[in-house]
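May I ask you to review the protein record following this short note?
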Amino acid sequence: MPLFWLSFGCRHQSTARDFHHRDNALSGTVFRLAVCVPRPCTIKEAVSALLFNVSSIGFQYGEEFCRLPNDKPWVLADSVAVLFLSMIAILTLLSTSYELFYIFVLKRDANGANIHFRAFSVYTNTQRLISFPQNADTLECLDGIRTITTAWVIFSHVFSSLSFLQNPYEEWAWMLSAGGLWITAAPVTVDTFFVMTGILLVYTTAKKMDGMTLVRRLHLFYLNRMLRMLPLLATAVILDASLFHKIADGPYWTPVATNAERCRIFWWTTLLHLQNYLNPRKMCVPHSWYVALDIQLHILSPVLLFWLLNGRQQTAWSAVVATLAVAMGASAIYNCALELPSHTFSPSRDSQLFDYMTKYYFHVMSRITPFLVGMAFGYLLHLWRRRIVIMNKIVAVCLWALTFLVMGFTLYMLYRVKQLNWNNQAVDTALNILMRPAWAAAVGWMVLACVHGYGGEKKTRDREKDMKKGRERKCRMSVEADELDRGKHINEMILDFSTGPIDWFLSLPMWRLPGRISYGMYLFHYPIMFVVNGTAVSSPYFSIPNYLFQCLAHMAISFVASFVLTVTIDAPFTIIFRRLLDRGMTQTKWKRVEQLEAHELAPRTNFH
């Protein structure tokens, strides 16, 4: 006896234009019901027998999908998942046992153990993950921004993923209200991630190489980023294609089953970071478009990065202005031509949502401007690295005021856009062009101010005294002092200044660990959410306390899952890839086969 999932709805079909002119609260609503139907019966006969002739009173119905007993056959993706997870478990067990035996039985220093044999050791990888050595060049405020942004994404997905509510009208009214803005405005968090990516790209690369070195090692520059993102992304693909689909079941298992089917077909576009162009409506790991854009922007970044690493500030700033102007000009032409909405939650233009997502939201065109702004701030942070930056208090206060004004105005416009009577294409286009770079500049200033001691002002006189002392201490430094001592003194002075409330909050130690594993939390929270929601056997009731509880629950589950997978998969492969890349940069001669390490000869498992 198959299980059919039916949808019933009113005949009236509302459009985007008359969306806000509904005269009936039930207009356009859909009622879904799962029923068991005997094989000889048609859907019409079963519905009429179960209820009555619903078509006669204005309802229409249709079959969405059909579940049959034992409808999860074993496929190749399941074999690959078992092989992969078994291999990880065996390597983890052997590697951890080797290191513990070496340390606690042989009583030797762990640094003397073979790095390849202990690459999968839980003992060492956990220690590294929870260790946070002090460094004068660390941008500590980024941990707070990254963690808060990740939490914002998870919270928004919790609110948007629940369905079949007992009181959908209350949820809909709340989402349209100002109180729901902190959820509906969550898409701007993606631009925050791209700002941080641009900042760190320039800030970290500028320490390691110049422009010509970048050109010579361009293949390693690309390979390093791709390999850095690969282990957890590949794990997410495997889990979506197999384990998450097998691990449980429920009345509405469609989202999980759909993700599994898509990953079995389009796994390769996700691993090649092409899914946002080749199959944007059928993506494997549906939120992995962010990872694809990250890689694509890194591929484009040397166009500007070369000039930033060239050492000439005038040329570098000219390149920043030129690339940003070209990007914004192209975005203006693109948006004017397509006339798309400006937000993922714009009910009055709901019919254009898929076009907006596939043609703009998942597109490099929408993310390149915040990425370039981040690169500009990263370059400025590099120029001011380990320097005492003295800024007039009025200027600092004005820049903070402008930052909050930009962020507040952005949130206000996103509130206006989600109203049912919104209909202003010119403003939508302007928002698509200007909103993201403006938000990026606000986040960039926040980072810059926190790093250089302007993360919320202290008393003016105290700051002036600190600055004077800092300059005096810097001037008294001996020219012959080695670089380590010099960095230590400068770091002490910077820490003396960074006492503002915003910088203090964003640099709290509690943000460090979740900030470090935020990539895993981003990748795995959504599939886990689908599994949990799919197993529900009753309709949830919408209330803010109930949703907040689920938000905290999913945060905790995502944190634990990300921690475990980072220790057992991401950290080991990062070590192996780093060793291979280091060999590629320093090796001048080919090795003979008998000279290669064991891990260099191990074949890689391909996912088919």
Summary: Strands lie at 3-10, 30-36, 59-67. Residues 544-586 form the longest helix (43 residues). The longest strand covers residues 59-67.
